[in-house]
Amino acid sequence: MATAKFFSFACLRNESSNYGELSPKPHYPSMPKYPKGVSVSTDEEKSIHGTESKAVFSVNGMSCSACAGSVEKAIKRLPGIKEAVVDVLNNKAQVIFYSTFVDEEMIRETIEDVGFETTLITEETNEKTSQVCRIRIKGMTCTSCSTTVESALQLIPGVQKAQVALATEEAEIQYDPRILTYSQLLKAIEDTGFEAILISTGEDRSKILLKVDGVFTEDSMRIIESSLRALSGIEDIDIDPELKKLSISYKSDIIGPRNFIQVIESTGSGEFKAMIFPEGDGKQSHRQEEIEHYRQSFLWSLVFTIPVFLTSMVFMYIPGLKDGLDIKVVNMLSIGEILRWVLSTPVQFIIGRHFYSGSYKALRHGSANMDVLIALGTNAAYFYSVYSVLRAATSPSFKSTDFFETSSMLISFILLGKYLEVLAKGKTSEAIAKLMNLAPETATLLQFDDEGNVVKEEEIDSRLIQKNDVIRILPGAKVACDGFVIWGQSHVNESMITGESRPVAKRKGDTVIGGTVNENGVLHIRATKVGSESALSQIVQLVESAQMAKAPVQKFADRISKYFVPLVIILSFSTWLAWYLSGKYNSYPKSWIPSSIDSFQLALQFGISVMVIACPCALGLATPTAVMVGTGVGASRGVLIKGGQALESAQKVNCIVFDKTGTLTMGKPVVVNTKLFRSMVLREFYELVAAAEVNSEHPLAKAIVEYAKKFREDEENPVWPEAEDFESITGHGVKAVIHNKKVIVGNKRLMLEQGISVPVDADEVLAEAEELAQTGILVSIDSELIGVVAISDPVKPGAREVVSLLKSMNVESKLVTGDNWGTANAIAKEVGINDVIAEAKPEDKAEKVKELQSLGKVVAMVGDGINDSPALVAADVGMAIGAGTDIAIEAADIVLMKSNLEDVITAIDLSRKTFGRIRLNYFWAFGYNLLGIPIAAGALFPSTRFRLPPWVAGAAMAASSVSVVCSSLLLKNYKRPKQLDNLEIGGITIES
Question: From the centroid of its chain, how far is CA 769?
Answer without folding.
Answer: 43
